[in-house]
């Protein structure tokens, strides 16, 4: 009898103790002992080699011309979670647009000078509106180089409409151009590459791709040639897209240059990842491309956090454009960040962006 | 005295604890505690069937109103989440604050659940719509503070999409804070010192006081977020986010995180923990005061613990980071994890008779807590595995337009409708009185 | 339950149980932390 009672007493005390122990340990570990329980940071840096110089040319950064039209297209279809291949994008009647279409596109052309003096040519993304993109590719000499098979690397940053739906403007000039895509593409992306049309979204590809498709994932630093690597990020993105890859260049005597499409993973995250994974990553010399902060000219205090944090990374040049957002760049300038200005021509709206036709040279 | 078998335990939270003596006479009892129900089905069929039923209703409502592949597509996500949070607080007001006034006990006991359910849910939806559109969008937003109103923000020049999202966030946070503070009164204070009032005076008084506190908490913890949300910062109208130095973020998500933990802690204490340990205090208002701080301690423990668990799983966040590495998203996600904790707890409480009940209180609570904590990890894993095909979401933990709290709370709201408004039918029903 | 009429004893066994429980509970949380780091 008394043994029963004392066993019961023990069980009662033990039950209370287990609960108090678990939650008490949780409370202590997460507050007073936080620093002690967190494992130390591990750096795992890869040497990607060096380049002599870099020339980054903005072919097009005006992905769409009227924010309100774009947002209305999205809202009408059901919001930013809806599959981009099913949204009826506005291709006519847009006053601020290109020939009435709201569609423009994003693409960047890069020439990298290796230490031995040779030049490698890279195309990043294909834009959105094939007509606009073809015009810009011709104007910047990219179309000619594609046709002459002089483009060494065609990289797709991610599957978004404004980076990929203009693909036929590239495959028209060289359907056999090998392409590198980040892991995470949906079947529709590969179908579009091969020539399928999506009439609801006003997209087609009249020049099916015949080259090799290489999928790069986030398991390692993808070294392409000395001084150039690609990093893939497993990041969920609006409009039913997943995964983005971004470029890292290492310019001798200067440091790392980061070139992005949209940087959906976040520029601070990109710089932190580079710091941990790339030799020399403590020093990012320059950042160029879309930084996806306030593309719709909306805001979130999280972006103020980003601007405050940016200051700490010692970046010397910021060539922002496209989905960065004008509010963001105005705030960067107010925070005395080293923003490189452009010339606001060829349908780029303001000179605080590195706009269409503008160039960033690092040597 | 009734002679048929009834399941009197589960409803009588204020009943004398196992082994406690003498019995504590409660100051005030809710109809939800007084009602006596009988089982129409036995376990585990009753539990499983009811879970399946509420899940089925949830999926239907999700498809019609929220799913990006569905009909209205309100999960953008703040707009849809705003409605879900308001459905919840209005249900709390109906069941806990107004104790189902103006419906009389006789009607509550005798009306069929298929009549009670639609009537009470209908009132719930109507009030939600009225308060959001009439109250916030066209009154508060128009004549007091624009950021509470979708039409007003749009009129001031903001894009339609973001006007709806920003206003949605403001309106839902008001409901979230209220859903933490409002139930404290009947639960911890037993409506002291207004327990002797009759309805609706009692309900209106508790509503007024808790709304006052809600408004104060909102202004201290969320208004600053809206001050820096717009460009330029509205620095004269709102204090700078004072939590910035500690939290490493300007975002009010820091507050959203622990407040969401608060809204969950209230229900964990009310259900699987049977209001221990403050129920041992016999006098009010001491019991209520200790109860309030106990809930707050539980909430903050959950908040900090979930922050730590994320930092261990993914590495620490850093200032200016985005997605998984954004400090403000981590705080928010702690709130999301807390909501995932409530689902197993409520399932155990509503549908499995708060098992176990036959041991001493410490043992009962420990077993339930183990089930809840284990269930949280399991549900977390299941959610992220199945939600893309089931709910139309994108894969990944941190997505700019996703907020797992929304679907999980919607399912919880359905469970509350089912148990509060429909007595858990067809698993249970109100026990028929014998004699007079 | 008929055999539990009196309030439970909080004799030495209760406190022994409490201490054992605290250790077990703390250990379980420590294990939770370790599992999360290993799974990273």
Overall description:
- The complex is a heterotrimer of chains A (363), B (436) and C (40).
- Chain A is α/β, with parallel strands linked by helices.
- Chain A is built from 11 helices and 13 strands.
- Chain A has a 7-stranded mixed β-sheet. Chain A has a 6-stranded mixed β-sheet with strand order 7-8-9-10-11-12, covered by helices on one side.
- In chain A, a hairpin with a 4-residue loop joins strand 2 and strand 3.
- Chain B has 436 residues and is mainly α.
- Chain B has one domain (3-430).
- In chain B, strands 1-2 form a two-stranded antiparallel ribbon.
- In chain B, 51% of the residues are buried.
- The model of chain B is unreliable at 1-22 (pLDDT under 50).
- By secondary structure, chain C is mainly alpha-helical.
- Chain C contains 1 helix and no strands.
- At the A-B interface, helix 1, helix 3, strand 8, helix 9 and helix 10 of A face helix 7, helix 10, helix 13, helix 14 and helix 15 of B.
Produce the secondary structure layout.
The complex is a heterotrimer of chains A (363), B (436) and C (40).
Chain A lengths: L1 H29 L3 H4 L13 E10 L6 H11 L29 E8 L4 E6 L5 H10 L2 H6 L5 E3 L5 H4 L3 H4 L7 E4 L4 H7 L19 E4 L5 E4 L2 E10 L3 E11 L3 E6 L6 H11 L6 E7 L10 H10 L6 E5 L4 H9 L24 E4 L1
Parallel strand pairs in A: 3-4, 4-5, 5-6, 10-11, 11-12
Antiparallel strand pairs in A: 1-2, 1-13, 2-3, 7-8, 8-9, 9-10
Chain B lengths: L30 H4 L2 E3 L5 H22 L11 H20 L7 H6 L2 H31 L6 H6 L4 H22 L2 H5 L12 H21 L1 H7 L14 H4 L5 H18 L15 H29 L12 H25 L9 H31 L13 H17 L6 E3 L6
Antiparallel strand pairs in B: 1-2
Chain C lengths: L11 H27 L2
């Amino acid at each position: 009898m008394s043994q029963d009672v004392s066993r019961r007493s023990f069980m009662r005390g033990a039950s209370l103790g287990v609960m108090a122990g678990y939650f008490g340990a949780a409370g202590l570990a997460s507050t007073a002992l936080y620093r002690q329980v967190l494992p130390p940071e591990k750096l795992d840096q890869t040497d990607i080699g060096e380049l002599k110089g870099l020339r980054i040319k903005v072919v097009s950064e005006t992905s769409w011309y009227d924010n309100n039209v774009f947002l209305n297209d999205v809202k009408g279809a059901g919001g930013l979670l809806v599959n981009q291949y099913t949204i009826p994008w506005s291709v006519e009647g847009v006053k601020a647009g290109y020939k009435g279409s709201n569609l423009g596109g994003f693409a960047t052309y890069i020439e990298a000078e290796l230490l031995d003096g040779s030049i490698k040519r890279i195309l990043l993304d294909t834009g959105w509106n094939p007509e606009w993109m073809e015009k810009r590719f011709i104007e910047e000499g990219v179309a000619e180089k594609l046709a002459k098979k002089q483009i060494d690397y065609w990289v797709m940053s991610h599957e978004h409409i404004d980076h990929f739906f203009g693909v036929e403007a590239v495959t028209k000039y060289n359907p056999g151009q090998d392409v590198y895509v980040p892991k995470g593409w949906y079947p529709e992306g590969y179908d579009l590459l091969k020539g399928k049309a999506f009439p609801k979204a006003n997209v087609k590809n009249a020049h099916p791709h015949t080259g090799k498709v290489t999928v790069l994932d986030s398991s390692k630093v993808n070294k392409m040639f000395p001084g150039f690597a690609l990093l893939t990020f497993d990041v969920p993105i609006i409009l039913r897209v997943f995964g983005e890859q971004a470029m890292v260049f290492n310019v001798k005597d200067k440091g790392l240059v980061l070139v992005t499409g949209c940087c959906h993973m976040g520029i601070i995250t990109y710089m932190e990842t580079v710091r941990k994974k790339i030799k020399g990553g403590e020093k990012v010399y320059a950042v160029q491309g879309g930084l996806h902060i306030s593309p719709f000219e909306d805001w979130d205090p999280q972006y103020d956090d980003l601007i405050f944090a940016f200051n700490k990374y010692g970046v010397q040049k910021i060539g922002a454009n496209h989905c960065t957002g004008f509010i963001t760049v105005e705030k960067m300038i107010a925070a005395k960040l080293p923003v490189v200005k452009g010339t606001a021509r060829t349908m780029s709206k303001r000179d605080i962006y590195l706009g269409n036709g503008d160039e960033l040279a690092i040597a | 005295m009734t002679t048929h078998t009834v399941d009197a335990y589960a409803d009588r939270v204020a009943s004398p604890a196992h082994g406690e003596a003498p019995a504590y006479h409660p100051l005030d009892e809710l109809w939800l505690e007084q009602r006596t129900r009988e089982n129409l089905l036995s376990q585990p069929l009753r539990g499983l069937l009811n879970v399946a039923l509420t899940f089925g209703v949830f999926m239907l409502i999700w498809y019609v109103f929220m799913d990006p592949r569905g009909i209205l597509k309100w999960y953008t996500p703040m707009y849809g989440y705003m409605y879900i949070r308001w459905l919840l607080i209005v249900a709390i007001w109906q069941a806990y604050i107004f104790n189902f006034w103006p419906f009389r006990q006789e009607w509550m006991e005798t009306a069929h659940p298929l009549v009670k359910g639609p009537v009470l849910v209908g009132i719930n939806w109507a009030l939600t719509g009225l308060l959001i559109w009439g109250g916030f969008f066209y009154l508060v937003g128009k004549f007091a503070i624009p950021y509470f109103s979708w039409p007003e923000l749009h009129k001031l020049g903001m894009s339609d999409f973001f006007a709806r999202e920003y206003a949605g966030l403001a309106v839902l946070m008001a409901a979230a804070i209220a859903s933490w503070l409002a139930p404290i009164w009947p639960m911890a204070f037993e409506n002291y010192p207004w327990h002797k009032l009759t309805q609706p005076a009692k309900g209106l008084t508790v509503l007024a006081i808790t709304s006052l506190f809600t408004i104060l908490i909102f202004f201290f913890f969320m208004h600053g977020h809206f001050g820096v949300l717009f460009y330029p910062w509205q620095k004269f109208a709102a204090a700078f986010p004072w939590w910035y130095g500690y939290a490493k973020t300007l975002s009010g998500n820091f507050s959203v995180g622990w407040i969401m933990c608060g809204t969950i802690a209230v229900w964990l204490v009310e259900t699987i923990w049977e209001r221990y340990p403050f129920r041992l205090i016999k006098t009010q208002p001491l019991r209520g005061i200790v109860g309030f701080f106990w809930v707050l301690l539980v909430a903050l423990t959950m908040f900090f613990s979930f922050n730590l668990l994320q930092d261990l799983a993914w590495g620490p966040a850093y200032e200016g980071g985005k997605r998984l590495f954004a400090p403000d998203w981590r705080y928010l996600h702690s709130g999301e994890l807390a909501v995932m904790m409530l689902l197993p707890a409520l399932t155990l409480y509503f549908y499995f008779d708060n098992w176990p009940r036959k041991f001493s209180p410490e043992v009962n609570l420990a077993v339930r807590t183990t089930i809840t904590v284990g269930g949280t990890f399991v549900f977390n894993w299941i959610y992220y595995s199945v939600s893309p095909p089931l709910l139309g979401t994108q894969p990944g933990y941190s997505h700019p337009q996703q907020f797992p709290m929304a679907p999980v709370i919607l399912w919880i709201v359905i469970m509350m409708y089912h148990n509060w408004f429909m007595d858990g039918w067809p698993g249970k029903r109100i026990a028929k009185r014998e004699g007079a | 339950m008929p055999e539990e009429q009196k309030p439970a004893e909080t004799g030495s066994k209760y406190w022994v149980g409490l201490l054992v429980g605290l250790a077990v509970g703390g250990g379980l949380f420590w294990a939770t932390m370790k599992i999360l780091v290993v799974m990273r």
